């Protein structure tokens, strides 16, 4: 069954009209998945005071609900990142993601950038390449794909945006790909490689980033920064 799913995922990715990328099998973050809002033992927990409606129930045998409420949508204030030296040869306004360093840089000039801590794709779900932001959504809804719901029948067909939704307060969609830069309330997940290929930021940071960029912003995803860039940009760590 796994082989069939992986083959299907690779076939789907191959037909995406995005820039050339190092694609790997992908799936959306599941409420039960190791990269989603599962139980306390897993890599991400539900936000405090916003319990997961499935917590403690385990996997249901019957089909999940068609619609699941993602909870409230409180106002989230932007949290400014730190400004650091950055020697990369990127145009101002470019987003550069350092997967190994688990940092997102918004280039300000030829010598400076804003730096945000992020979580990245876990082993088997990382990728590199270039995309452009195609859409920005507030408290986005989550639509687990059919293949995921067939594997885990407890998942809803749709989860509305809110504090319990794993996509957080904002989502910046990357081209026609299945990946996003999106928010999370789970501070303990930041700095880890535990997502399904998306890039997670604290909600305050993604709100701040969304005010500085927009549709058309170029996003460069690297396995790691070149040594001269990394040496300069991390001097103040």
Mind explaining what this structure looks like?
The protein has 237 residues and is of the alpha/beta class. It has a single domain, classed as L,D-transpeptidase catalytic domain-like, CATH 2.40.440.10. Helices cover 15% and strands 24% of the residues. The chain contains four helices and 13 strands. Strand 9 and strand 10 form a beta hairpin. The protein is globular, with a radius of gyration of 18 Å. 41% of the residues are buried.
In short:
By secondary structure, the chain is of the alpha/beta class. It has four helices and 13 strands.
Keywords:
single chain, alpha/beta, L,D-transpeptidase catalytic domain-like, 4 helices, disordered N terminus
The count of DSSP E runs of length 2 or more, i.e. the number of strands, is: 13
Shape: globular
- Named CATH architecture: Beta Barrel
Beta strand %: 15-25%
As for the number of domains, it is 1
Oligomer: single chain
Q: What's the CATH H-level superfamily name?
A: L,D-transpeptidase catalytic domain-like
Q: Main beta sheet: strand number and arrangement?
A: 9 strands, mixed
Low-confidence spans: pLDDT under 50, at least 5 residues?
A: 1-60
Order of helices and strands: HEEEEEEEHEEEEEHEH
From the alpha carbons, calculate the radius of gyration and give it in angstroms. Answer: 18 Å
Assign the structural class, choosing from mainly alpha, mainly beta, alpha/beta, alpha+beta, or little secondary structure: alpha/beta
Overall helicity: 10-25%
Number of discrete helical segments = 4
């Amino acid at each position: 069954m796994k082989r069939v799913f992986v083959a299907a995922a690779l076939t789907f990715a191959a037909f995406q009209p995005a820039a050339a990328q190092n694609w790997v099998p992908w799936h959306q973050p599941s409420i039960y998945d190791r990269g989603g809002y599962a139980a306390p033992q897993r890599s991400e927990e539900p936000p405090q005071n916003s319990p997961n409606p499935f917590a403690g129930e385990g996997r249901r045998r019957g089909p999940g609900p068609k619609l699941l409420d993602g909870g409230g949508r409180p106002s989230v204030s932007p949290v400014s990142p730190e400004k650091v030296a950055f020697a990369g040869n990127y145009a101002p306004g470019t987003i550069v993601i350092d997967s190994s360093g688990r940092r997102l840089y918004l280039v300000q000039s030829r010598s400076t950038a804003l730096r945000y801590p992020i979580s990245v794709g876990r082993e088997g779900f990382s990728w590199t390449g270039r995309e452009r932001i195609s859409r920005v959504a507030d408290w986005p809804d989550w639509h687990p794909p059919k293949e995921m719901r067939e594997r885990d029948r407890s998942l809803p067909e749709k989860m509305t945006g809110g504090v319990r939704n794993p996509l957080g307060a904002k989502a910046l969609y990357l081209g026609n790909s299945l990946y996003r830069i999106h928010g999370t309330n789970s501070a303990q997940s930041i700095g880890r490689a535990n997502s399904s290929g998306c890039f997670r930021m604290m909600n305050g940071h993604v709100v701040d980033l969304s005010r500085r960029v927009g549709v058309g912003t170029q996003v460069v995803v690297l396995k790691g920064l070149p040594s001269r860039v990394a040496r300069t940009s991390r001097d103040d760590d």
